[in-house]
């Protein structure tokens, strides 16, 4: 945070729409004061103070900056530099504490400034990326400069988070890319790694069509990551071993971004498709890592963001058939997903999780340099676009939305994994998960939702899964291994199933929020579920009793299913 002492006396020059706020009379930070202006020469002076010297004395550096008369804490730039002494700063020598401290403070100011688009634009136009690159080249590998590395990478990440700037040519500089990846691979500081992951997530994300026409910075970064096995190993190693929660969250975000971009063959024009390596990120290593992260987070009530991000990562990778097959064939993955279905409570209202992907937001440093978290989202589109970018999403502190995330993940693996998806369906085709899914589709009062259609996606995925489950059940029943073998011990289950199935259909029929295409699709899923359940009951079972009351119960269940089918037909 900046106080009034950091603003130039005359406030002359360029005015910014989102300026730095002053302190009020009580000493509190004022967030929305439209009257405060910041002179551009001040920002330039900050950049000059951050720039490493090459054989110059600290006094010489101060002399070149003397004109601004502004420094952190209200001192003049000259005073701030001469207090540290006049020792020469030689290339490659260990920096003094005062030198690092000053650059850290200046970096924090720039980090704050870069949260505003206009400030960030001004930084890019005045070679801030080049300055930061020179700082990283000189200080990044010095253990005592880890805070400076974190701050400078945080500034870069903020710049990249602005859509308008994410494709700036300076961010795709041929010297900057290998430098960042090299420092990433060698860094061990959790705060620094957090900012590196945030930076790479913003730079590798899919640009808008307008941005794509202007530049290919994102392709350069994706190609570089896919071409560096060490960088991929580092990212997966972080996910596997990180105890620092923000770092783990950021690393998962980066995996999701790369999953959405697709394997090398999908990244057209990046050069990654011709890479001779098979990227670690598109291998069974990722399957094992994500499954283990998900499993280890289930026992921590505060880890809902990690659980949700892990599910979204599995979903994003699962859109690609070969990865869906690997996840489906993993016994551990199936067990974890089934555990989630069994243990997660039904949400009070569906739509807690909608289907967007990832929109990074600029972050500001705290006193300790820990920035606020960015948002992360994954998506599965219904039509030809499997994945798309939409509005930002943020998990709360509760488990709301996790059940729907599980539905999206399961549906993706089942639909994209071909025959391997049956391994998951086989686990779902039992009374407990089936009743849970039917209870979910019956739990949302669609008629009370007005015209807001953001709540429909979870319901659609649940009906899609139910249709897959009952197709599997019917096929197994014909082979003599069915779920609905009518016997006295399943009467309660059958009754509950039919009650919730009818409620779920009534919710869809009475809904005024489903669009025509979605309404038709859900009705088809519901109709298919009813037909499969009816045909399953009609298949003779060796274990079924021939007692009259059992036959009557079977007939009654079939009649209810026919009545439900009529409701669906009438709605169509």
Shape field: elongated
Low-confidence stretches: 1-23, 27-36, 55-92, 269-276, 350-358, 366-398, 447-454
Instruction: Give the proportion of residues in helices.
Output: 55-70%
Percent of residues in β-strands: under 5%
Radius of gyration: 29 Å
Q: Return the string of H and E elements.
A: HHHHHHHHHHHHHHHHHHHHHHHH
Helix/strand structural class: mainly alpha
> What is the number of beta strands?
0
Distance between the termini: 59 Å
**Largest β sheet strand count, sense and barrel closure:** none
Q: What would the average pLDDT be, to the nearest integer?
A: 74
Count of DSSP-assigned helices: 24
**Oligomerization category of the chains in this entry:** single chain
What does this molecule look like?
By secondary structure, the chain is mainly alpha-helical. The protein contains 24 helices and no strands. The chain has helices at residues 40-50, 58-65, 77-82, 97-113, 117-125, 128-139, 146-161, 176-186, 190-204, 209-214, 217-227, 229-241, 245-261, 284-297, 304-318, 321-329, 331-343, 402-416, 421-428, 431-441, 457-478, 491-509, 516-538, 548-571. Helix 9 runs parallel beside helix 13 (245-261) and helix 15 packs parallel to helix 18. It is elongated and about 95 Å long. The N and C termini lie far apart (59 Å). Residues 1-23, 27-36, 55-92, 269-276, 350-358, 366-398 and 447-454 have low confidence and may be disordered.
